[in-house]
Each structure stands twice: as C-alpha cells, then as structure tokens.
Write a structure and sequence with these properties.
The protein is an alpha+beta fold. The protein has four domains: 1-16 and 190-362, no CATH class; 45-179, no CATH class; 380-443, no CATH class; 462-679, Porin (Beta Barrel), CATH 2.40.160. The protein contains 19 helices and 21 strands. The protein has a twelve-stranded antiparallel barrel with strand order 10-11-12-13-14-15-16-17-18-19-20-21. The protein has a seven-stranded antiparallel beta sheet with strand order 8-6-5-4-3-7-9, with helices on both faces. Strands 1-2 form a two-stranded antiparallel ribbon.
C-alpha cells in the first residue's frame, strides 16, 4: 500500500495547479470589490426595507402545487445529483449553502426553506455591532478564521435562486419585505459584463503530470481591455504543495474548493509567462440573459466550499455548473463524469455549440521557440549573452542582416529577459537597463510585419481520453489475441492535440490476453499510471525529462516463470530536438519489482533508457534501448531493444504496432504486437 501511495504523489501536481487560491472563499466579495474599485458599494445593509405585500403561505402552496423541487434547473442551482439509490444529494458540502437543515439531501425541503427565507424581514444591526463583529480575528484550532461575519439576507446570498423562483412563481421585487436583489444589480452595473470566455491553459512542460492542463472562466468588462478582465476560478485552498499526504487528501476530498475572482493579467503571468503554457480562449456565445444567470449563480456560491477531488469534482467539472446555470438545455454536468480532464470539458463545451470563436495566446516559451527559427545559432548565442549581461546592444555584430531578422532578435531578447526575471536568474536591477536597451533597439526599426506563427492543433481536436484496443501478437508464451483498456488520458505516440508533444499521462491500463497454444486467458499487466515528460532542452532552456511507471506487471524469475509483482519505475534525464520532428532522449534511474517471494522483498534494478521519437502528428515512431542491472545480483543484466509506431487514422482511431528483442536471465526472445485502438 505504501508503494501505491508513494507513486500517487507524483500524479497530483497535475491537479494541484488548480489549487491554492488562498482566501478565495473568505474574501470573495472583498477581492472582487478591490478588483473593480467598488469595494463596499454593493452592500445593502442600509437599504430601506419594504412592506410584505403577499402571503408567504400562498406562495409556498403554489410552489408545492407546481412541484418546483423536481425542476431540473433547481437541481442545477443546488448542484443536486442522483445517488446510487435513486435519491438526490448536493455536491456542495458547506452547510451555509442550505436554508434547510436537511437541504443537502432533500430538494423539496431546501426549496421551501429558501422561499420562506426570501420572505423574512431584514435584521438591522447597529453599525458599531457590525464593525465589532467583522473585526474579530478568532481562530479555529486548524488556524482558519471562525465564521463570525453577519449572515446576509437570503436574497443577497442566493441571487440565482431568487431570479428563478420569481420567474416560476410570478413574483417581483415589491412582493418581498426586503429588496436584497439591489445588491446584485449594483454589482452587475459596475461589472458591466461583456464577452465571457472559457480559458484552457495547456499542460506545463516542466511538471510531468500537468499535461492535463486547467480551465477557468474570463468575464470581460465592456469598453475595457481583456487583460483587465476578471477571471473566475475554482480552486482548492491549501498550504500543502505535494507529498503522499497531499495526494491522499486530494483523492478523498480532504481540501475545500472555492470559486473566486482574479485579474486576468495575473493568470497570464502565472500560466503563460512563469509556467510557459499556451492558453486557448473560447468565447461562449451567451446572450445577456444567459450571462446574468451565470453571474447570479457565481454569487450564489460566494464563500461557499465543496470538497475538492483531484480526479472528479475538480476545477473543470465545477465550472460546468456555471455554464449549465447559464444555458440549462446543455446539461453539461450530466454529460461528463468519472475522471474529469480539463481538455475533455473543453471538447464538451465546444461540441455542445457553446462557443463561436477560439483565440490562441502563445506562451513566452512558444514565442521564443518561434523567434529562434528565424535566427542562426550565432545570432541566438549573441541574444543569450546580451540577456546574461555578457555583452551589450552597442556590441551588436549583425548590421548586415535584414530589419525583420533584427526585430526577431530584439524580441527574442525581450522575451528571454522576462523568463530570466520570472525564474529569479537575474535581479530587477539587472533586468531594467537590459530590457530598456533592447526595447530602444527594437523601436529604431519601426513597425514591421510580425513573423508567421504556427498555431498548434486546437485542444477541441483532442482524441477521446478513454481507450479500448483489440490486439494480436507474439509474446514469451506464444501467439495471442487480446484487448487492453485505458481509463484516461493520453499515451506518448498518440496525436498531441490538447496535450504536450511526446508526453504521456495514462491511468488504469489493463492488458488481457488469450494464448492459442495453451488455450489460456491471462492478465499481462494492470498499470495504475504511466507518466512520461520529455520537454526539449536547448540553448535557452534546460528542461528535465522524466518517466514514472507503477502498477501490477508480470516479471520473469530465474526459473523462467512469470509472476505478478508491483512495479515502480522512475527515471530522470534530458531531451533535445536537433531538428524539427526528431527528438532524442536519455534517462537514468531505478526499476523495482516488489513481491514477498523476492529476497529483501524486491528486485531492484538500476540503469537507463535512451532513444528517439520521429514523425509528424498523425504518425510517430519511437526506437529505444533499455538496460537495467540487478543491484542484488550484478551478473544479471536485463536489456530490451524496441520500436513502436502509431498511425492515427482519424481523431478517435489509431493503428499501433511494435517489436522488441529482450534478454532476461541470459534468455533471449522476441515479441511483437499490432492493435486497433478506439478512443472515446
């Protein structure tokens, strides 16, 4: 069990990037007020109450007659989902989200309690009491703040529910004793929402498991630049950054997730500039009415937590509730489940007809890679020396090159200086004069047409993350046919749309076979996960390459038999790309097999793997050699030479084949296989 947990902790940097928006829940409105410059202006504490004009019991009876709790939109607003036993249960865990004590599991009780709460009088609290209460800094035993804040009126707390109930029951603001909706309307006026986007930052090259990517929403303000817009993110609040406990808590919902606002330029700095991740902006074709429903539901969830699960109820899945609240006919939260990948939610939104425009925002890494293609090695070396302070603009030795190439060189310098600053390789004092001198040199060239930029395949073109394959071939037992299955997400040679090129992150891979000669069904392996990250290093970047594989696999014993053992393989190294479409790599590390039948409980190998990957997106080939020496029996060298290929015949279908020559305990044999793979 320890080995499984130890292996899992490598997985969750993928999901932990959706983490750590400290204080999102506690200061939701405050943060938004600071973002928009209207902090406090949407408080309705001093609004004058109105007289109750209708009988609440009549309203309750009408809601009962209409059975509003059975309406699908009510289930969307309260995040109700059916349980295994056919009942409904909300995915929200914060008791503050419910007006009824049993509201989490009783949609009818929650609806009736919500209606009653809307008709309650506003409790006016003296200013000195409010100030005293809100200034308290009591702490719980875990260090978090106690909830000593004054509870807002239900209409203020749930503007999404309020609008829907009014529509269904034919009510208007004047029918209630208190106009709490004025708070939301004041905020909406200040926000003045324009276009809304679903944003997908692609996988992080330097973090092996982050090929999953991330998603959040972007709300533009009319008449203002997009960079100043507000992003709506759902993230886990935690001070932990990794380790086995972090992985376990993430699997079992040990963190609280909150919705929150953050400036878009901060997101760009985080993802595009610091993490060097491309970003894709999908404009949602929402009407003004649908935008209103979405934003109301955002504020329904202000300061409200749900348990955060790395693989299921994560950043991407919970954002779908906001989209479904805007356009309930899409039912997007019903169309996805299990392990929820950000790229899968992007595909779902796109295929549901919710987008009408896609824009690509290249990362600073992609910009540099593109600028490099226009320059010679000598010109690239000068650019790096200038950024490191080893030469100056005045020493520019390439006066004879074209203005376009000069512009590319200065732009490369400007981008690389930002990389050095964000990675703390140069100080601000070193950065400023170098950056200004580069901008001055570029400005002298005047306006020039930007270089062509090759846009990668769009993420919505990604293959399905689940896979089933039908295979045949020859292994140590003889000829076989079989099938293999992958729960999620992507293998190394498959089309890279939506994922990092030549990377792999695959969960729950099962390989079942049938042997002809022995008339025998058998399990070849059941791997928990496989991670391969091969970001290429070059003159400007050193990117460590890595591999992690863990799961149950057959292992050859000295007597020639094969027995199951738990495998943990972890390698580290580097990779380079000498020419386009060719990538070389070299990795070294350990490969362990754990079983009670082994001496010391394990067979421990040390060694490495080297090889290359070549081809284009629809056809890739990998040739490799693997050498491992048994640490406890140094006369035992295990080696493997192989070739693997993948031909993508369509978006969700591929032909794969492979051949390998193996030497194990001085026994030699050949293996080959071919398979037809379907993705869904």
């Amino acid at each position: 069990m320890f080995i499984v947990v130890f292996s899992l902790f490598f997985i969750f940097p993928a999901f932990s990037e959706v983490k750590i928006e400290n204080g999102i829940g506690e200061s939701f409105f405050k943060n938004f007020g600071q973002r928009t410059g209207i902090e406090g202006s949407f408080s309705v504490e001093n609004l004058i109450g109105q007289k109750k004009s209708i009988d609440v019991e009549e309203v309750i009876q009408k809601a009962q007659d209409l059975k509003l709790w059975e309406e699908p939109y009510w289930r969307t607003l309260v995040h109700y989902k059916p349980t295994f036993f056919g009942h409904y249960k909300s995915l929200v865990d914060d008791p503050e989200f419910f007006c009824a004590k049993n509201g989490k599991t009783n949609p009818r009780a929650e609806l009736m309690a919500t209606v009653r709460a809307f008709f309650e009088e506003k409790i006016e609290i003296p200013e000195e009491t409010k100030e005293e209460t809100n200034s308290e800094s009591q702490k719980e035993s875990d260090g978090s703040e106690k909830n000593t804040k004054i509870k807002k009126h239900a209409i203020e707390r749930f503007p999404g529910r309020y609008r829907w109930i009014c529509e269904k029951l034919g009510l208007k603001n004047s029918d209630f004793p208190y106009d709490g909706d004025a708070a939301y309307q004041a905020l909406l006026t200040k926000l003045n929402p324009g276009d809304i986007y679903l944003v997908f930052p692609a996988g992080y090259l330097k973090r092996p498991a982050s090929v999953f990517g991330h998603t959040f929403l972007l709300v533009e303000t009319k008449g203002r630049p997009r960079l100043t817009a507000n992003s709506i993110n759902y993230g886990a609040v935690t001070n932990m950054t990794g380790g086995p406990l972090f992985a376990i808590l993430g699997l079992v919902g040990g963190f609280h997730g909150y919705y929150g606002f953050e400036a878009y330029y901060e997101k760009i700095k985080q993802y595009s500039d610091m993490d060097m991740r491309d970003m894709w902006e999908y404009r949602l074709n929402l009407t003004d009415d649908e935008k209103d429903r979405m934003l109301r539901h955002v504020f329904d969830l202000a300061g409200i937590y749900s348990r955060y699960y790395f693989t299921g109820e994560n950043c991407s899945y919970n954002l779908l509730f906001l989209i479904e609240a805007a356009r309930p006919s899409t039912k997007v939260t019903e169309l996805i489940g299990g392990v929820v990948e950000p790229v899968e939610t992007v595909k779902l939104v796109y295929e549901s007809g919710l987008t009408d425009k896609v824009e690509y925002r290249p990362s600073i890494y992609s910009k540099i890679e593109n600028e490099k293609t226009l320059l010679t090695k000598k010109e690239q070396k000068f650019a790096k020396k200038l950024c490191l302070g080893k030469t100056t603009v005045e020493d520019f030795p390439f006066e004879d090159i074209s203005p376009e190439k000069q512009a590319a060189l200065w732009e490369l310098c400007a981008d690389y200086l930002n990389v050095l600053l964000h990675s703390n390789k140069i100080s601000s004092d070193e950065y400023r004069p170098r950056y200004l001198s580069v901008l001055s040199a570029r400005r002298k060239l005047g306006k020039l047409n930007p270089p062509e930029f090759s846009v990668p395949t769009h993420p919505e073109e990604a293959h399905g993350s689940k896979k089933i394959a039908f295979a045949g071939g020859y292994d140590k037992k003889g000829g076989f046919i079989g099938t293999n299955f992958r729960l999620t997400a992507h293998e190394q040679l498959e089309r890279s749309a939506g994922y990092s090129e030549n990377s792999e992150l695959a969960f729950a891979m099962v390989d079942l076979r049938y042997n002809f000669s022995k008339n025998e069904f058998y399990l070849q392996k059941a791997d928990l996960l496989s991670i391969i990250s091969l970001p290429a290093s070059d003159l400007f970047f050193f990117n460590g390459a890595s591999q992690l594989l863990t799961g149950l696999e057959k292992n050859l014993d000295k007597d020639g038999s094969e027995n199951f053992a738990w495998r943990l393989k972890t390698l580290y190294g580097f990779s380079i790309r000498p020419v386009s479409k060719l990538q070389l790599y070299a990795l070294a590390g350990i490969d362990c097999y754990f079983s009670p039948s082994y001496s010391y409980g394990t067979e421990l190998f040390a060694g490495g793997e080297t090889g290359f990957i070549a081809g284009i997106d629809i056809f890739r080939t990998k040739i490799y050699a693997d050498f491992m020496l048994n640490v406890f029996d140094t006369e035992y060298l295990r080696s493997k030479f192989g070739i693997e290929s993948c031909l993508s015949v369509s978006k969700n279908a591929a032909l794969k084949g492979g051949y390998s020559f193996l030497r194990n305990y001085k026994k030699n044999w050949h293996e080959w296989n071919i398979s037809f793979n379907l993705f869904f």
